[in-house]
Amino acid sequence: MKYILVTGGVISGIGKGIIASSIGTILKSCGLRVTAIKIDPYINIDAGTFSPYEHGEVFVLNDGGEVDLDLGNYERFLDINLYKDNNITTGKIYHHVIKKERRGDYLGKTVQVVPHITDAIQEWVMNQSKVPVDGNPEEPQICVIEASIQPALRSLGGTIGDIEGMPFVEAFRQFQFKAKRENFYNIHVSLVPQPSATGEQKTKPTQNSVRALRGLGLSPDLIMCRSSTPIEMAVKEKISMFCHVKPEQVMCIHDVSSTYRVPVLLEQQGIVKHFKERLDLPVGDSSSGLLLQWGNMADRYERLQKTCSIVLVGKYTKLRDCYASVFKALEHSALAVNHKLNLMYIDSIDLEQDTNAQDPVRFHEAWQKLCTADGILVPGGFGLRGTLGKMQAISWARTKKIPFLGVCLGMQLAVIEFARNCLDMKDANSTEFEPSTPIPLVIDMPEHNPGELGGTMRLGLRKTVFKTQNSVLRKLYGDVPFIEERHRHRYEVNPSMISHFEQKDLAFVGQDVDGNRMEVIELANHPYFVGVQFHPEFSSRPMKPSPPYLGLLLAATGNLHAYLQQMGLPPPSGENIDKSDDGFAGSRMAELEIS
Asked: Which sequence positions are flagged as catalytic?
């Protein structure tokens, strides 16, 4: 087993996750089996109870693990399915060690950070790195480990840095000798700032970061310099001299138009040859056709001329990472239909009349975005705030026949909106928002424990069975009888009330295997009005877009029926035939070309 540790310096948020994912993609393109581990030093057991504004979205895995969004990057880039134990937190490690202590496994010894915590970290990494993640029963050959730890910089005021991460630093200091040099590789990602006042690329932050890392016992084998523009050769040579590495061990990742370009950028700088020599890998000096596909995707992305505008009506729109997987799923689908994505964010509360009274400019700007969008998306969320605005957006999509996709809470609100405006159930509501509602249209599930939030939802991969062949979503999935997608929710549509809807053209076309839980809704006589209880964005891949999101982009660009016909699938009956882009029906879909 070969281990590649990716650490960060200077500041967080400079792209360690994308770089780690890109390294894995390059190694996979060389024919190697790759897995990934993310280390987060926070005390939380997992990411399930985080506010989206703290760490961005909570990414859900097949096994129900609620993890850091970087694991989503690994899955999308490498096309693998990770497990909750691929996300190591300080909380998990301490919980594991304390349970062993309570069982008496340490035989009366004093339990300390060194050696017990550090040993537990090393054992966890070694055990989890052996778990297959790509459908191949053989163990992975390479484990890419991204550690969210910053080397502490000493100053007169004390220690500035990541205190929680120090046990992990010490664990890997020991681990590099346990694994042996030919099996352990350290990549340090550091920022090279370029102040606008001078335009000069500054190396001192990187020098200090590498010096601090060396002081902790870890020496980088490769320094990845993040910068806004390509690193000049003189700057690279300066970093090489002061950080005690060869010039070829300093690589640059500058800002690019698309993350699809990052693996190609690394490969062009000879990283495959470097890995081969340093880790004695059984590969050639260059990667295979898989990376060529990434290069083609990047080229196509930069050549796109047409634009499709999608409006996302949500609660956490101030930070894009709150909807990271949603954005990626839309981006994958937009690329598949040969359009650039123009994603507009609307805080749902801005669509409500209270905002009109308090800030009419913001209210009208929000409605202007909604009215000009080619498609409308209402993603998942929790809580009452902004739900009225979301339902107004849903009503607009339904009545104006704008393509619409509702995910999780978005589906539940679509059902409530339809009940209130089409079934005259004015008091219909969710027990999440109104526990004593006279018409409980959305109810909590048996799994829900009101006294405990962590891990009490319906989580992970679940089967959804289509109840009819006359379903647009079934067609988009390839006309299969059932699908498996990832869930994360505490509430569900009340199954005792669905008969009222199906008389009025809102059909529950997908249910769980027992037929008790409503998973998919579709509205007849509408270009595309779909709601799903699951989160299909977590399974989207750059070369395999998520079908519900692909359907939204196809409908928003007027290409849905042409696509279904091209795939040899008849469009569902009772649907309006949408218009197609000029020449589309006779051409092959980009999605088919890259699959």
From this structure: 408, 535, 537
Give the 3-state secondary structure of residue 464. strand
Measured torsion, CA atoms of residues 418, 420, 425, 429, in degrees rounded to the nearest 10: 90
In contact, 395 and 352? CB cutoff 8 Å: no
pLDDT tens per residue across span 419-433: 999 998 999 999 999
**Mapping DSSP to helix (H, G, I), strand (E, B) and coil, where does residue 447 land?**
coil
Residues ≥6 apart with Cβ < 8 Å to 400 = none
pTM of the full predicted structure?
0.90
Same fold for the domain at 2-299 and the one at 305-593?
Answer: yes
Retrieve residue 283's tokens. 């590969």
* 3-state SS, residue 541: strand
Q: Where are the domains of the chain?
A: 2-299, 305-593
Return the structure tokens found at 180.
């042996």
DSSP state of 517: S
Fold of the 305-593 domain = Rossmann fold (3.40.50)
Taking Cα atoms as reference points, which of 32, 1, 37, 34 lies closest to residue 17? 37
Residue 417 sits at the vertex; the CA angle it makes with 416 and 423, to the nearest 5 degrees, is 85
What is the DSSP-derived secondary structure letter of residue 544? Answer: B
Question: What does residue 222 show for φ and ψ, rounded to 5 degrees?
Answer: -150, 135
Which of the listed CATH numbers 3.30.830.10, 3.40.50.12780, 3.40.50.300, 2.60.120.260 matches domain 2-299?
Answer: 3.40.50.300
Tens of pLDDT, residues 287-322: 667 788 888 888 999 899 999 999 999 999 888 889
